[in-house]
């Protein structure tokens, strides 16, 4: 990952960390259950954004390198990983 | 898609179609709501399996061809599509 | 479910059935993989809508009856089912 | 939430917080993209567990109170919230 993307990803994760602490506070202060669930959903959406960014970067670097390379096993490995990551994301 | 994979995908989709008709019958016969929801979840899981198969095939054909090809725009297009499909799958 | 809601749910399921047949045709005609995946995602979204309607109806009938009733076991059973259905829906 | 459940939920959230910090470290040390995505998926699964616990508690307290109560608007509000939380969880 280039320095700029790395900084952006870290910034988003720091924000998720703060958001989780916010939810802890809500629990401590007996906030309304449905509001807490809403905040956790927002955290999960933010994490989806981070995953999408990381995958995008991965596709444009590791995957291109592996697919254009001469090592057929490595190519196969990298493409299978993408398929697995997708399948993991789509469990109902 | 080769003939064998195509036949397998079609077989799975025919099975999904039958499963949907089964759920219609459950609704007509006033089956218990939670059982109906369970069957719909099973249909969605079967569709996830179909999507994963199609993506796997896509990665091993179109994506390899585009990434190894000389057309930078086409390569970019194909990789962005994968990123989009993944993002669509991960909405919370 | 009242007659009107039942008719609406059946209409949606019939539409899903037709949509699945459309995807089969796309496979037979070697449509572009990413387009097929997009259509399957649309089917899953339509099924989510059906599940949400059924759950909504369930909450307003079976759940109210059970929770207001005198049978503590039945109440517990019905509420646990809602919790399970939710958990099944949120698997990452 | 009773004191024991509250402590358990807070313990889980603290663990999620630590897990997010672990992912930040992975990013800083240029860990392999697919491994990072795997860890983020684990965090999201842990958050699903927390959401399920909170909903379960909500069903057994607020929902029972509202549904057994005499205020029809409040009953409607609480049941609609459950339907909404479910729908939010099932977006494809």
Per-chain topology:
The structure is a homotetramer of 92-residue chains.
Chain A: H1 3-28, H2 33-68, H3 72-89
Helix pairs in contact in A: 1-2, 2-3
List keywords for this structure.
homotetramer, mainly alpha, 3 helices, 0% strand, elongated
Description:
- Four copies of one chain form a homotetramer.
- Chain A is an all-alpha fold.
- The first copy, chain A, is 87% helix and 0% strand.
- Chain A contains three helices and no strands.
- Chain A has helices spanning 3-28, 33-68, 72-89.
- The longest helix of chain A is centred in the middle third of the chain and has 36 residues, at 33-68.
- The radius of gyration of chain A is 18 Å and the shape is elongated.
- In chain A, 35% of the residues are buried.
- The mean pLDDT of chain A is 94.
- Chains in contact: A-B, A-C, A-D, B-C, B-D, C-D.
- At the A-D interface, helix 1, helix 2 and helix 3 of A face helix 1, helix 2 and helix 3 of D.
In short:
The structure is a homotetramer of 92-residue chains. With 92 residues, chain A is mostly helical.
Helix/strand structural class of chain A: mainly alpha
Spell the H/E element sequence of chain A.
HHH
Q: How many alpha or pi helices of chain A?
A: 3
Distance between the termini of chain A: 31 Å
User: What oligomeric state do these chains adopt?
Assistant: homotetramer
Radius of gyration of chain A: 18 Å
Portion of residues within helices of chain A: over 70%
Extended strand count of chain A? 0
Instruction: Calculate the mean pLDDT score of chain A and round it.
Output: 94
Strand percentage of chain A: under 5%
Most extensive interface, residues per chain? A-D, 37 and 37 residues
Contiguous low-pLDDT stretches of chain A (5 residues minimum) are: none
Task: Give the CA-based shape of chain A.
Answer: elongated
How would a textbook summarize the main sheet of chain A?
Answer: none
